[in-house]
Q: What sequence folds into this?
């Protein structure tokens, strides 16, 4: 009997140690200076490189990337990963004036959390000794991918604060293998006391159709004022295939979640709706160093289809290409319309590739926070999987559908064959999804 008890105990201990650190990792496994930048929790959890698991960790701040000195705020740690069964985390806050040695503010441990010091001991009532650096981490694994933490910012005059977070999306197989480790960092600025110059939102629309609707993972355009001081794109801000959620000092929260941003200037933001299961109206808030906008509303649906168009001719022509061969193409537009870019009308039998956003769920979900080149077809909405995923007509005649699905974050592609018998000139294009919604725009395909 004693042997059996011993075996049971050893088995239980083995399960716990196999998970890695179910009661919290050692201190200093964030990407903060003097911690383990570039390594983080992958020091112990093996399987993929840092931020290489196809997901991400994000921090959602209640007031955007600002803090009010001395005013406690709740920060949500959001971990997205396709295989995760349980979650763990560690985070730390440092002053920009001394990110290796100067603690910024104070963490307070919540349920299943603890604050540890550099000696890996739980913080005593007198605070961490030495330079006072704290790490907040789990004391029990979380079954939820969203973890709330409490942080009290430093007093006035402290300047910018850097928040560093690492997260373990564990697969629950009771080994340290195959877990996905993610890390991120944010810069918070002291909130401005000015009531002027705050971001203002005037409209939020589907980036393709212009309708006030979108879906999780679709492209939207936000217009307004007081966003960023200059135009910035994400070209140099995509790190290890993770899209930025801060660009030009601007953040966008949609349904409380940080949105990837591809472009921002003073009056416009192009962003991807983050992964969310919410349908109906959600709040959208734009924040910068001056503060946050009043919430605006975006309506989210399972599908909200829109077709991109070329900007020339007032968006008359759908954004598409026509294949000259399996490996070469020209843009589908009247010759010369796009300047130096080669373009031509289509003819009967040509295969054209049409681009849009918001076409609905795909057979394999694509994380909108990650850069990827894929070809996932739309998911069927009925029992008959032989039905076409969409109906495409050109000039009122049905076009043969070859593919309809997502090809990169927020971008869907339709491959269709131009039908016979069309008259030369501009012919209207109509797309209706198997799930029901139709593209509301009036767009055209040039035919020769």
A:
């Amino acid at each position: 009997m004693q042997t059996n008890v011993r075996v049971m105990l050893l088995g239980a201990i083995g399960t716990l140690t196999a998970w890695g650190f179910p009661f919290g990792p050692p201190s200093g496994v964030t990407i903060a200076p003097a911690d383990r930048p570039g390594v983080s929790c992958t020091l112990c959890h093996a399987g993929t490189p840092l931020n290489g698991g196809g997901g991400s960790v994000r921090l959602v701040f209640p007031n955007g990337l600002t803090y009010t000195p001395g005013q406690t705020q709740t920060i949500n740690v959001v971990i997205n990963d396709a295989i995760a069964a349980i979650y763990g985390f560690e985070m730390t806050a440092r002053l920009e004036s001394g990110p290796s040695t100067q603690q910024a503010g104070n963490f307070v441990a919540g349920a299943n959390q603890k604050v540890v010091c550099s000696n890996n001991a739980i913080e005593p009532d007198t605070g961490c000794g030495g330079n006072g650096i704290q790490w907040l981490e789990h004391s029990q694994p979380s079954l939820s991918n969203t973890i709330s933490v409490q942080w009290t910012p430093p007093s006035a005059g402290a300047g910018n604060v850097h928040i560093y977070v690492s997260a373990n999306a564990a697969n629950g197989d009771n080994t340290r293998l195959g877990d996905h480790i993610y890390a991120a960092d944010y810069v918070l600025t002291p909130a401005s006391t000015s009531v002027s110059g705050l971001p203002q939102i005037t409209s939020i629309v589907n980036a393709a159709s212009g309708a006030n609707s979108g879906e999780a993972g679709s492209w939207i355009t936000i217009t307004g004022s007081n966003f960023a001081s200059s135009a910035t794109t994400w070209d140099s801000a995509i790190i290890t295939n993770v899209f930025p959620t801060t660009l030009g000092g601007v953040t966008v929260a949609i349904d409380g979640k940080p949105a990837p941003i591809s472009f921002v200037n003073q009056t416009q933001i192009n962003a991807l709706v983050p992964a969310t299961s919410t349908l109906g109206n959600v709040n959208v808030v734009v924040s910068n160093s001056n503060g946050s906008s009043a919430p605006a509303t975006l309506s989210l649906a399972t599908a909200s289809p829109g077709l991109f168009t070329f900007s020339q001719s007032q968006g008359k022509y759908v954004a598409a290409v026509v294949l000259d061969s399996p490996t070469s193409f020209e843009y589908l537009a009247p010759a010369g319309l796009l300047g130096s870019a080669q373009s031509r009308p289509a003819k009967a039998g040509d295969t054209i590739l049409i681009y849009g956003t918001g076409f609905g769920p795909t057979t394999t979900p694509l994380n909108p926070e990650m850069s990827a080149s894929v070809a996932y077809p739309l998911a069927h909405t009925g029992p008959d999987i032989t039905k076409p995923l969409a109906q495409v007509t050109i000039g009122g005649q049905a076009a043969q559908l070859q593919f309809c699905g997502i090809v990169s974050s927020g971008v869907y592609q339709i491959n269709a064959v131009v039908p016979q018998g069309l008259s030369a000139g501009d012919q209207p294009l109509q797309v209706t999804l198997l799930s029901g919604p139709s593209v509301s725009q009036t767009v055209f395909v040039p035919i020769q």
